[in-house]
Amino acid sequence: MNADELDWNRTLREQWEVHWNHQLRARLDGLTDDEYFWSPVPDAWSVRPRGESTAPVQGGAGDFTIDYAFPTPTPPPFTTIAWRLGHVVVGVLAARNAAHFGAPEASYETWEYAGDAATALDQLQAQLDIWLAGVAGLGAAGLRAPIGEKEPYPDAPTADLVLHINRELIHHLSEVCLLRDLYSHTNTDATTNGATR
User: Is-above-0.85 flag for pTM?
Assistant: First the structure.
């Protein structure tokens, strides 16, 4: 098979799906609320009950808000699993699903952040499902089409956005897994059901 016959849409989706299905998803099983909110350092950014944050910006429309600042401080604050999942669900996926695939509008300011690990993982799965269905619906022609004005590089092909999202998902969710490992090795009373790999 030559490059002209390759199904690029399937190949780009499989880059993420294989990683998710055979490595990453199982690493998230059993995520506890303690792990979700845990930070090994003081003053980490997180998702917090409304009114409890001291961050310059608290985004969110529900009972929980996410810590932020504009511009991001240098060095950036350490972030908890809750924050990282909130960022992936909203900034990486939900906002793109709205911009490109007709999903409801989503932003850091309007999102209802999860106050527990199980809800956060449900939000992640829901947004992943929308994203993957949207990418599949693009076909080959859609991957070649310009991304459009809702992204920083509007003339780039949509395939560039798909690759960017793949990198973001792998990067941030690998950080979540590393934090789970650190939690299980730091907290001697932590259960090891899903926490160590």
Answer: yes
SS (H, E, C) 46-107: CEEECCCCCCCEEECCCCEEEEECCCCCCCCCCECHHHHHHHHHHHHHHHHHHHHHCCCCCC
Amino acid at 196: T
Check if the beta carbon of residue 81 is closer than 8 Å to that of residue 176. Answer: yes
Q: What is the pLDDT of residues 137-178, one digit of tens each?
A: 999 999 999 999 999 999 999 999 999 999 999 999 999 999
CA 78, 61, 27: angle at the middle one, nearest 5? 45
Contact 180, 195 (CB under 8 A): yes
Q: How far is CA 46 from CA 2, 6, 50, 156, 164, in A?
A: 47, 42, 12, 33, 24
11-20 burial code (b ≥16 CB/10 A, e <16): ebbebbeebb
Structure tokens at 16: 């993420």
